[in-house]
Design a protein that fits this description.
three-stranded antiparallel β-sheet, 9% helix, 2 helices, binds zinc ion, mainly beta, Metal Binding Protein, Guanine Nucleotide Exchange Factor, Chain A, six-stranded antiparallel β-sheet, 9 strands
Length: 154
């Protein structure tokens, strides 16, 4: 009788850092096929929807707002507030790793562009120090067309 050690290969599930999304990369043609013309112009070309026209500007449902291009969860409804600026406004992202920031010097001013941390899609801009009564005094001014609300069930 020979003692054979049965070696089972340990399963090591791939770990991603908490909060950091998997990178999503698609070709320009793939984005064009997936997104509507308006979604494409905002998410991939950095456009801005007209104020007070977005479907989520006055949305108050409880849920999570995901990137419309890649589905990464970006904002929670609890951080949405009424800024009356014409676009959905949040005072913080769901996690800092979910978004990335780019200095935007277009339109004769320096603004901070906010992009999806996974697919690099344009979301909007973040402003701070405006005096809003929120925990961060930041305003993530985000295009509705860059987001998709997943209402909480129950
Ligand atoms: Zn995305």
């Amino acid at each position: 009788m020979s003692a054979s050690t049965s070696s089972t290969t340990p399963s090591t599930p791939e770990q991603t850092p908490a909060g950091a999304p998997e990178p999503v990369r698609r070709s320009d043609a793939e984005w064009r096929a997936q997104l509507s013309p308006e979604e494409y112009s905002v998410l991939r070309l950095g456009g801005t929807e007209r104020p007070y026209t977005g479907e989520y500007t006055d949305e108050k449902s409880v849920g999570v707002y995901s990137c419309r291009a890649c589905g990464t969860e970006l904002f929670r409804s609890e951080t949405k507030f009424e800024s009356h600026c014409g676009w959905p406004s949040f005072y913080a992202p769901l996690a800092e790793e979910r978004v990335r920031y780019i200095s935007d010097r277009s339109m004769g001013m320096t603004r901070t562009e906010v992009r999806c941390g996974a697919c690099d899609g344009h979301l909007g801009h973040v402003f701070e120090g405006e005096g809003f009564d929120t925990p961060t005094d930041q305003r993530y001014c985000i295009n509705s067309v860059s987001l998709r609300l997943q209402p909480e069930r129950g």
